[in-house]
From TrEMBL:
The keyword Transmembrane helix does not apply. It holds the Pfam family DEAD. Residues 495-656 form the Helicase C-terminal domain. Transmembrane segments: none annotated. This is ATP-dependent DNA helicase RecG. Keywords: ATP-binding, DNA damage, DNA recombination, DNA repair, DNA-binding, Helicase, Hydrolase, Isomerase, Nucleotide-binding. It is an enzyme of class 5 (isomerase). The keyword Hydrolase applies. Belongs to the helicase family. RecG subfamily. It comes from Chloracidobacterium sp. N. Plays a critical role in recombination and DNA repair. Helps process Holliday junction intermediates to mature products by catalyzing branch migration. Has replication fork regression activity, unwinds stalled or blocked replication forks to make a HJ that can be resolved. Has a DNA unwinding activity characteristic of a DNA helicase with 3'-5' polarity.
Length: 725
């Protein structure tokens, strides 16, 4: 066995380092682990990747009672000597042939029986006279008059066929339990990981700055990298098993801090690349520009909006490109703030691109911008996939010739044939719905443009640091005056008719309502079918004197637009819809939002839906129609939502209950996949690592050690490093 095994050794090369690992096994392991952690090529999967495949729980098998001390229904390890081992066929009632392998073992206090199904090869393992440790849940058999166990874990203590494996890995200690990895079960993973840890020597402990390793927020000095890896897989002591189980031990801290530290360095590097890409779009703000911007305001700004505008203007007129995240709760007026930034850019001779995730949201922005800028000379265009080829070509030509000042569009803005004459400001709405690469592709169309990222989904602080660690953050934490809170209530089917009566009353008073249906399963067809059937039934049986409309994601763009225009015009009283209305739809006359099966939505998504009402002068309502038999936990979530108007409080709770992946959607969000750290559990470690990383970046960005860390970050978080490749 070679002495040069390292963390960067590819798993495909394991046959050269460990006996008993063949080329086929190594290839299958690399492929299955690579698929689990998002690495496309098995050749990229390393020993470190496998060692960061942590146990999901541990079992304390360290205590070895004698047979006389066993208790029914309790799991325990017991050391016995094999006296008899045999296998014999058994036919089930269904006529299926099975093989039962049975072992009888003894110690000085009694006898036990252990059995395994369909594992006849065990006869070569359990030979009479061998000492073995068995672990499982023991039951007393009055028929056999002894304790017995089915399919236990085992360890043969006097088997010397594998020098790399000590006497006890699977029993007689604190044992790691791994989730199955493809065809590799926990026992095989446990043996392989132990052998790897035994074979590793002199692992460099350079993943963290010394200051972070030795002074980590009240924790004792952190272990070395190799010691941490050994401890998280095979804890030596059981007195701190609770912290190990919770992944809050010093060993876990050592590994999680490294992830957080490297991610923050990667984000800092991405920001520097953007700032050094070229000359910044130079801008200045004069009294005349301020007056033109002020004249476009549809209402008086709140103090929070004024503060955020000052922060943005300071960035626009600074020497470095703006990189700012604008957060604001539903209805807080983010788009008006973005409008002020647009005017500053256009008045300085630059073009502006606003990218939104859906055509409905693009249309919403288009209507608002057209209305607010109607008295100006600014030239606007909307670029979406639904336009005719000739229309797209004309708009792209106008952008290239600087005949358009502001363009609002979907991902059509980042297609190869879209070019700008002088792009100076990029605004990305609902950024978490775009991948990192899409953001970079849009930025590449300008000369170091200023970047403003907007989201109406309040992002908890720890999640914002991971998603937007390269951005400065502005928060609009104040709603415009006169904006009334939406009255929210949880109702069950027994009160459905009263809810329908209430909708009729609101429509009779000249207002309108939404009824939202969730994704039934992971199938858009079923989603559409449910909404379509509901719309027909509501029109025919429930609201025959009202006009019921239908909106869903599989409709053609022109069909969606036609429906929304009718709803905005008041020609549709009740709009049955799927979640395409989640973001951006602004119909001030709509006063009721009924959400069917709300338990299927995340809290943040419910908050977005609730934000579609309450935009006008009328008092507005959101009704959560919970199904019969809803679980107490789901009902608790809904009641919390109904009583909480604060989007940031809702986002924190949603993050804690569902996790970041479900909250944002991993594929769309660009959220890094952490192997050890957890954004909820380890927010304090994330803060420590972030502070240390930015300190390193400010003080020694070009030092060899910093460049080494960046190279490691490239391997661990390639998407966070930025750039269009």
């Amino acid at each position: 066995m070679s002495a040069h095994l390292s963390l960067t050794t590819a798993l495909l090369e394991l046959p050269a380092y460990l006996r008993g690992i063949g080329v086929t096994t190594a290839g299958k392991l690399a492929a299955e682990l690579g698929s689990a952690i998002g690495k496309v090529s098995p050749a990229e999967v390393t020993v470190e990747d496998l060692l960061l495949y942590l146990p999901f729980r541990y079992e304390d098998r360290s205590h070895l009672p004698q047979i006389c001390d066993l208790a029914p229904g309790k799991s325990a390890s017991v050391l016995v000597e094999v006296s008899l081992a045999s296998s014999y066929p058994i036919r089930t009632r269904q006529g299926k042939q099975l093989t039962l392998f049975e072992v009888i073992g003894w110690d000085s206090t009694g006898r036990i029986r252990a059995c395994w199904w369909n594992q006849p090869y065990l006869r070569q393992v359990f030979q009479p006279g061998r000492r073995v440790v068995l672990y499982g849940e023991w039951e007393f058999s009055s028929r056999a008059r002894c304790y017995q166990v089915e399919n236990p874990d085992y360890e043969v203590l006097n088997d010397e066929t594998d020098d790399d494996v000590p006497e006890t890995i699977h029993v007689g200690r604190c044992v790691p339990v791994y989730r199955k990895l493809g065809t590799f079960r926990t026992r095989a993973l446990r043996s392989l990981i132990f052998r790897l840890l035994q074979a590793l020597h002199d692992v460099p402990d350079d993943g963290l700055p010394d200051e972070l390793r030795h002074d980590c927020g009240g924790l004792p000095p952190l272990p070395t990298k190799l010691a941490a890896l050994r401890e998280v897989h095979f804890p030596e002591a059981t007195d701190h098993l609770e912290s190990i189980q919770a992944r809050r031990s010093p060993a876990h801290a050592r590994l999680a801090l490294e992830e957080f530290f490297l991610l923050t360095l990667a984000l800092a590097n991405r920001r520097r690349q953007r700032e050094q890409a070229g000359e910044k779009a130079g801008m200045r703000v004069t009294y005349a520009i301020r007056e033109r911007a002020r004249q476009t305001l549809p209402f008086r700004l709140t103090n929070a909006q004024k503060r955020v505008i000052r922060e943005i203007v300071s960035d626009l007129t600074g020497t470095r490109p703006m990189s700012r995240l604008l957060q604001g709760d539903v209805g807080s007026g983010k788009t008006v703030v973005a409008l002020q930034a647009m005017i500053v850019a256009v008045e300085n001779g630059w073009q502006v691109a606003l990218m939104a995730p859906t055509e409905i949201l693009v249309e919403q922005h288009w209507r608002s911008m057209t209305r607010w800028l109607s008295g100006t000379s600014y030239r606007l265009a909307a670029l979406t996939g639904r336009l005719k080829p000739s229309e797209k070509k004309a708009i792209r030509q106008a952008l290239a010739n600087h005949e358009v000042d502001i363009v609002i569009g979907t991902q059509a803005l980042i297609q190869n044939d879209t070019a700008f004459a002088r792009l100076g400001l990029v605004i990305i709405d609902e950024q978490h719905r775009f991948g990192v690469l899409q953001r970079e592709q849009l930025l590449a169309r300008g000369i170091s443009p200023d970047v403003l990222v907007m989201t109406a989904t309040p992002i908890p602080r720890s999640l914002a640091m991971a998603l937007y660690g390269d951005l400065d953050v502005s928060v609009i934490d104040e709603l415009p005056p006169g904006r009334k809170p939406v009255v929210t209530a949880v109702r069950t089917n027994e009160r459905r008719n009263r809810v329908y009566d209430f909708i009729r009353q609101e429509c009779a008073a000249g207002r309108q309502a939404y009824i939202v249906y969730p994704l039934v399963e992971e199938s858009e067809k079923l989603d559409v079918a449910a909404a379509t059937a509901a719309a027909a039934k509501l029109q025919q049986e429930v609201f025959p004197t009202l006009v019921v409309g239908l909106l869903h994601g599989r409709m053609k763009s022109e069909e969606k637009d036609a429906v929304m225009q009718k709803f905005v015009a008041g020609e549709i009283h009740v709009l049955v819809t799927t979640t395409v209305v989640e973001v951006g739809i602004d119909v001030p006359n709509a006063s009721v939002m009924v959400i069917e099966h709300p338990e299927r939505f995340g809290l943040a998504q419910l908050h977005q839906l609730r934000g579609r009402v309450g935009r006008g002068a009328a008092k507005s309502y959101c009704v959560l129609m919970a199904p019969d038999g809803i679980s107490p936990e789901a009902l608790e979530r809904l009641n919390f939502f109904a009583q909480t108007p604060d989007g940031f409080a809702i986002a924190e709770k949603d993050l804690a209950w569902r996790g970041p992946g479900e909250m944002l959607g991993l594929r769309q969000s660009g959220l890094p996949v952490f192997r050890v750290g957890d954004l909820i559990r380890d927010a304090d470690w994330l803060t420590l690592a972030r502070e240390a990383a930015w300190r390193v970046w400010r003080e020694q960005p070009n030092a060899p050690q910093t460049q080494h860390w960046l190279a490691r970050a490239q391997r661990m978080f390639p998407m966070a490093m930025g750039g269009v490749h």
